[in-house]
Specification:
heterodimer, A: 251 residues, mainly alpha, globular, disordered N terminus, B: mainly alpha
Chain lengths: 251, 211
């Protein structure tokens, strides 16, 4: 399936969870299975650029380790990661990753995984540390995972800066192309879990804001002018926010 | 390019006229230096060409515009500086810019939009200086911004569907794009006034999400 054909409506906005347990089950489902998708994406990236194969394998292994840690922490706290919910959220992302891989587009994968997906993970893991003590053992693994996600983002930022050195317009075109589906997908998931985040003591709005600001900042670091970066990210988030506010179908 | 504005353009004129007239009234009452001759000229032209509410009230934007105007009628200098000088002038600037560059709108509308954009730009510059001296910068300004502007920002959401339906195709003005442009303009301006961008983005996300 091409990105253009990707279903804009693969699932409905879920009914807010009945209780905190369901919220954490769904959030942890997205964390565990999202990390597994991230591992696969880095692995596919390694296939496209042999010169980075070793590093991408290392990143993939780290992401796989995160999934394993999160699964263990879930088990220790009576949390059942909700695979069905995660599958609904991740199918659209997997389609995008497959399309970019089939097109041999390493740079698009770098933006989707290294910037958009990682921005979402960072925007959630970081504040989660402040409430993680209610789930013994979770704080340590999320802290470690956060550090490693930042490490991945650091490499991707350096790669993209060099790749598009003196080519800011070309990078803006790439980001614009990837963002349409990428933000619809990942930003859509952020909107769909906003209420679950609030239910476990975080602010869904703060997480969404941190993701927007974090991703905007990354585009700037590669060379996109501040206003263009903000417009590009916020402009794509706004329809999702509007749908969230009005209880409309998100993706 | 047609010479005279059509019905959709006149509806836009009426909306802009009502918002600009409120801004001018607020400036005249508490910040007379912002009631510039350019602003007065734009308001006069808007109200003369689109003098009544009949079309607006019959449209899906009638009620949301009434609510926005009520929320924007801040009581004092600080509220006026923030609501009008920081928020609504920027929103107007973006709409004027889009209209002035649109190939299919009338010559009259494009010309008015250019004048409107210039008037907004000069008020924004003066308001920014005034904000620095009167309200301050940094966290203090952030608190004042939230207190004054949240009611207006919350009501912008109510315009979304109507704007998309009435002006999306016609003027290439979709709500998401306007808010995206608005936020992109607002963020660096606030950062220059010492407000943390991360804090502001999180706050705006909360306001627009209705949280």
């Amino acid at each position: 399936m091409s990105i253009a054909d990707a279903p804009a409506t693969t699932s409905c906005t879920p009914t807010p969870p009945a209780d905190k347990q369901q919220a954490i089950n769904r959030l942890m489902g997205l964390a565990v299975f999202g990390e597994m998708v991230a591992a696969r994406t880095y692995s596919l990236m390694g296939q496209l650029k042999p010169e980075f194969a070793g590093l991408m394998r290392k990143f993939a292994s780290m992401e796989g380790q995160h999934a394993s840690w999160f699964r263990d922490a879930s088990k220790a706290n009576g949390i059942e990661p909700d695979k069905e919910f995660a599958d609904h959220e991740l199918d659209y992302l997997i389609d995008q990753v497959n399309d970019h891989h089939a097109a041999g587009d390493f740079d698009a994968l770098a933006v989707v995984q290294g910037f958009i997906v990682e921005s979402m993970a960072i925007a959630i893991y970081e504040p989660f540390l402040t409430v993680a003590d209610q789930y013994p053992g979770a704080k340590e693994v999320f802290q470690k995972a956060l550090e490693e996600e930042l490490y991945h983002v650091d490499w991707v930022t350096r790669y993209l800066r060099l790749r598009f050195f003196d080519g800011e317009d070309e990078f803006l075109t790439l980001a614009g192309r990837v963002n349409v589906a990428g933000i619809d997908c990942i930003g859509g998931s952020m909107m769909k879990i906003a209420d679950y985040l609030s239910m476990i003591g975080l602010s869904g709005a703060d997480c969404a804001g941190c993701m927007m600001d974090g991703y905007t900042g990354l585009l700037e670091r590669v060379g996109v002018e501040q206003k263009k970066a903000a417009k590009n990210v916020v402009g794509l988030f706004m329809p999702l926010i509007h749908k969230y506010r009005h209880g409309m179908k998100i993706k | 390019m047609p010479e005279a504005p059509d019905r959709d353009e006149l509806l836009m004129w009426r909306i802009l006229g009502k918002l600009e007239a409120l801004a001018l009234r607020k400036y005249e009452s508490v910040l007379p230096q912002l009631a510039t001759p350019e602003k007065k000229a734009v308001v006069g032209q808007l109200l003369a060409k689109a003098p009544d509410d009949a079309e607006l009230e019959a449209s899906p934007l009638g009620e949301p515009i009434r609510e926005l105007l009520a929320a924007a009628d801040g009581p004092d200098r600080t509220a006026t500086l923030i609501i009008q000088g920081m928020v609504l002038e920027r929103l107007g600037q973006i709409i004027y810019k889009a209209l002035s560059a649109h190939q299919t709108v009338s010559h009259t509308t494009r010309s008015l939009a250019s004048a409107g954009w210039a008037a907004c730009s000069s008020v924004i510059e003066m308001a920014t200086q005034q904000i620095k001296t009167q309200v301050g910068e940094g966290d203090g300004l952030f608190v004042a911004f939230c207190t004054a502007a949240d009611g207006v920002l919350k009501r912008l959401d109510g315009l979304g569907d109507g704007v998309d339906r009435l002006f999306g195709q016609k003027f290439g003005l979709t709500f998401s794009e306007v808010i995206g442009d608005f936020t992109a303009e607002l963020l660096p301006a606030c950062v220059a006034l010492g407000i943390s961008r991360r804090k502001l983005v999180c706050h705006l996300a909360g306001v627009f999400m209705g949280m």
